[in-house]
Design goal:
The complex is a heterodimer of chains A (about 350) and B (about 100). Chain A has about 350 residues and is mainly beta. Helices cover about 10% and strands about 30% of the residues of chain A. Chain A has five helices and 19 strands. Chain A has helices at about 25-35, 125-130, 135, 160-165, 230-235, and strands spanning about 1-10, 40-45, 65-75, 80-90, 115-120, 120-125, 175-180, 195-200, 205-210, 215-220, 225, 240, 250, 255-260, 280-285, 290-295, 310-315, 320, 335. In chain A, the strands form six sheets. An eight-stranded mixed beta sheet of chain A has the order 13-14-11-10-15-16-18-17, with no helix packed on it. In chain A, strand 5 (about 115-120) and strand 6 (about 120-125) form a beta hairpin. Chain A starts with a strand and ends with a strand. The relative contact order of chain A is 0.16. Residues about 1-45 of chain A have low confidence and may be disordered. Chain B is globular, with a radius of gyration of 14 Å. Chain B has a three-stranded antiparallel beta sheet with strand order 1-2-3. Chain B is built from three helices and three strands, in the order ααβββα. Mean pLDDT of chain B is about 70; it is low at about 10-30 and about 95-104. Chain B is an alpha+beta fold and about 100 residues long. In chain B, helix 1 (about 5-20) crosses helix 3. In chain B, about 35% of the residues lie in helices and about 20% in strands. The chains are: A mainly beta (about 350), B alpha+beta (about 100). The interface of A and B includes residues 325 and 330 of A. Chain A: This is YHYH domain-containing protein.
């Protein structure tokens, strides 16, 4: 059965979103966006047909969007199709600020520090954690703080962050906690690094899953990039910690603010609602157009029938993914559907 | 008939041997950050894999490619350390030897 509805797709410019990111301006921004509807397309919103649910563009937070439109595209199987071209400003629409990331000193507690993950576990990046790194990693070369002052070595300038955030970390930044400020890459408060994602309007299941070979796994409804696995081996081999905030996100010069895990509802990271049937809530679209839901259901259980991509199907949602644990350095295992080329 | 003690000892040795070869991450807890990659070091894509974290929790999944590197992506619920059984280990070991493999 099909339900047809007309969805107003907004095309707005970043100038209208200049005040994004604060509670006071959210309503006015939404009003401004609503008034700038310049393109309306008729889209068929379908219920589950052959395990497929079409992408719903209305789930994207208005104050994260710079534009969204339907464009012609070619899928990875060579077929001509239509895709949503979604341009986001890169700043999480559900937050006012990013961080905290690195702890300031070895006395810093979890409330004022971010996260680090290792072997599937997400840890509070407290001062205590930092001071114990040589034991944690079994390597006496770890010394991320000043022994006299207890202050943590933090990349606190754009030059330092970029020297330490690259694959071949500059030697002088060994034993640094790496954090980059979004202000280095965006002049407008409440905005990040603009990115455009091509997502098939109607997902197409592949015969066999595809590798995740690009930098993008998907995009969250709040406008944040879902990145591929962080190169922890390279990071740690330089005795650096690329600190995350509570949402398992951090900033780099290329992608801006991006996620390496899903950690909704912990610390300063906003929770997402469960579905009415207790199923985990959706928070993102993968690049193949299938939605990504939280790992656990309302009872705290994880599904036992996930495929190698961490996806499965049900009658309500069709084929969909469930994110891996917050400390697992991935969201999904592969693309079950065709992606746009 | 085999001495029951000898049989038990033999099984233990076999299990330990398989564990050390197939669940390589078990033996390198000081380098657990590499565990998801180490678990697929001698594997090919789509092969079953498993690793443990620093707490001893067991992660069972499939080797998948990320930026040309194989990494173990969990697709079964985490088995906490206190609930890990020899059967869990054996299941992973058997799967890793008998799965049909995709390699493209």
């Amino acid at each position: 059965m099909q339900i047809k509805s007309t969805l107003g797709l907004v095309v707005c410019c970043s100038l209208l979103l200049g005040g994004c990111g604060t509670d006071d301006t959210t309503d006015s921004v939404a009003d401004a966006v609503a008034e700038t509807v310049t393109d309306t397309v008729e889209t068929e919103v379908e219920e589950v047909v052959d395990n497929i649910v079409v992408v719903d563009p209305s789930v994207f937070a208005l104050n994260s969007l710079e534009s969204i439109e339907i464009v012609d595209c070619t899928l990875s199987n060579g077929d001509a199709s239509t895709c949503y071209s979604v341009t986001v400003n890169g700043f999480p629409a559900d937050r006012n600020e990013l961080g905290p990331f690195c702890p300031e000193s070895i006395e810093t507690t979890a409330d004022d520090a971010g996260k680090w993950f290792d072997g599937g576990v997400l840890y509070d990046l407290t001062g205590s954690f930092v001071s114990n790194l040589s034991v944690f990693y079994g390597d006496s070369k770890w010394q991320l703080y000043d022994k006299d002052t207890g202050l943590v070595n933090i990349t606190d300038t754009q030059v330092a962050c970029e020297a330490a955030a690259r694959p071949n970390v500059a030697a002088e930044y060994n034993n640094f906690c790496v954090q980059c400020e979004i202000s280095y890459y965006s002049d407008v408060a409440g905005e990040g690094v603009s990115s455009t994602y091509l997502i098939p309007v109607t997902p197409v299941l592949r015969d066999s899953p595809a590798d995740i070979s690009s930098d993008n796994v998907g995009v969250a409804f709040n406008g944040v990039n879902l990145a591929v696995a962080a190169p922890t081996q390279a990071i740690l081999s330089a005795y650096t910690i690329a600190a995350f905030d509570d949402c398992v996100g951090h900033v780099n010069p290329v992608a801006g603010y991006h996620y390496h895990g899903a950690n909704h509802g912990d610390g300063t990271c906003p929770a997402i609602d469960y579905e009415s049937d207790g199923h985990g809530g959706a928070f993102a679209y993968a690049m193949d157009g299938f939605a990504i839901y939280s790992m656990l259901n309302q009872s705290g259980e994880e599904d036992t029938d996930l495929d190698e991509c961490r996806g499965h199907s049900d009658d309500s949602r069709g084929y969909h993914y469930h994110a891996a644990g917050a400390g697992e350095n991935t969201f999904i295992g592969c693309f079950a559907g065709e992606i746009a080329q | 008939m085999m001495n029951p003690h000898f049989k038990l000892l033999t099984m233990a040795v076999v299990l330990l041997t398989l564990t050390s070869t197939c669940l390589s991450a078990f033996a390198h807890e000081e380098h657990v950050f590499k565990a998801p990659w180490d678990a697929c070091a001698d594997a090919i894509k789509t092969q079953q894999c498993a690793y443990t974290n620093a707490h001893g929790d067991l992660f069972k999944g499939t080797c998948r490619v990320f930026n040309e590197a194989l990494m173990c992506v969990r697709n079964q619920p985490i088995i906490t350390a206190e609930k890990v059984t020899p059967a869990d280990v054996a299941e992973v070991t058997v799967s890793s030897h008998h799965d049909s493999h995709e390699n493209h």
